[in-house]
Amino acid sequence: MSAESPDLLVVGASFAGCACAIRAAQLGLKVRLIERKRDVGTRIHTTGILVCDAINSNHFLQNIPSGLTRRIETIRLFSPDLHEVVLRSPGYYFLATDTPNLMRWLVAQASAAGVDVRLGTAFTGARAISGGIELPGQTRAHFLVGADGPQSSVARTFGLSPVRHFLFGVEHELAQTKVPDANALYCFLTRRHARGYIGWAFQGTHAVQAGTAMRYRAAQGRAHALPDASGFFRHIAPVLPFDGAHKSAVRAGLIPCGGLVEKFAGPRVLLVGDAAGLVSPVTAGGIHMAWKHGWHMGEAIAGYLLRGAVDPGEVARRTYTRFAFKRLLRWGYDYFQYDWIFNALLHTRAMRAAAQEVYFHRRG
Ligand SMILES: Cc1cc2nc3c(=O)[nH]c(=O)nc-3n(C[C@H](O)[C@H](O)[C@H](O)COP(=O)(O)OP(=O)(O)OC[C@H]3O[C@@H](n4cnc5c(N)ncnc54)[C@H](O)[C@@H]3O)c2cc1C
Predict the structure, then answer these.
(1) How far is the CA of 275 from the centre of ligand 1 (A)?
(2) What average pLDDT does this structure show over 15-37?
(3) Which of 186, 266, 277, 321 is deepest in the core (most CB within 10 A)?
(4) Homologous superfamily of domain range 8-78+90-164+258-324
(5) Residue 163 DSSP class
(6) CA nearest ligand 1 atom 52, residue
(7) Cβ pair 330, 257 in contact under 8 A
């Protein structure tokens, strides 16, 4: 490898890629981070809500400037016939984020940690060479991380497993409107408008964010799964009268929901975050997992390249979350999400306890 070649090349400068690159650079690796977008604050495809577990378990995230977040402590969960259950868990909170500027902040942190960040640079292919990988015409590296999201080109290039099970989420930013309870995440169970998931709305840092996600079956095509935002807004109008509110921006994309992919590592290549399917099949939250495992894999790769420690693929096999129970819940929800069940049972103790578990992880 030449003197300019990085030790580690990371593809994708979102949560998983930034975490991995920052941690590996902190531990002494020469890291390059490539990202196809010229500005990571554009074409945002996430609601951007952070759970407090992510903040509490990683000191780095505690440095996020307070102006980029706002705290949400209550869940207002609505049955399909719009009856409400209010859920709270002392000490537990969610952070709504100014996501475009959070992404820009993360990339700035990577640069500050010594990562060679190359925006506007797409990964288009690579090949294995002795002791590493080569991106023809670009560079060589001792290790490659695919943090390039749910339709990973790195996975395709190296014969790793693709993500096969998805939800498709669409969210609108609604300027010039407010939700009555700015401290709440409003969640709506409705098979018609959010089959396989929920609809949601909350006061974001700059606008109300409201959307739905549905089960996406590749064979039936994206159009089949596209949530009907107008229909959803009409459905929730008795609670949140958004009809006619100006839609100022849209965030949309595929969300892995089938758990960890089978083959997520090869010789000197590893997938993290959405590329590896590390998203909760129940909540569809992936930011915490992307950050946690990205950070940990940055450590593992540094240990491997600098001290000959265990192969990072092996570390990943031991530590990546498999979501066995949550995959079972996902299966149940896919097949038994009937509105009458939630209309009849949402107020019961058992259902409240289940909801408390899903939102607050047993801290009810
Ligand atoms: C509508 C929606 C709402 C969501 N809301 C939440 C939420 O509120 N909370 C939560 O925890 N999770 C949420 N998720 C899931 C969460 O966004 C993802 O799990 C998380 O973003 C995964 O991070 P990542 O770094 O693995 O991948 P991504 O965020 O997908 O980032 C991949 C990056 O790789 C880049 N890239 C892709 N291909 C290439 C290439 N060939 N070359 C170079 N760069 C490339 C992309 O531009 C992108 O920057 C949501 C998802 C969707 C779709």
Answers:
(1) 9
(2) 98
(3) 277
(4) FAD/NAD(P)-binding domain (3.50.50.60)
(5) P
(6) 46
(7) yes
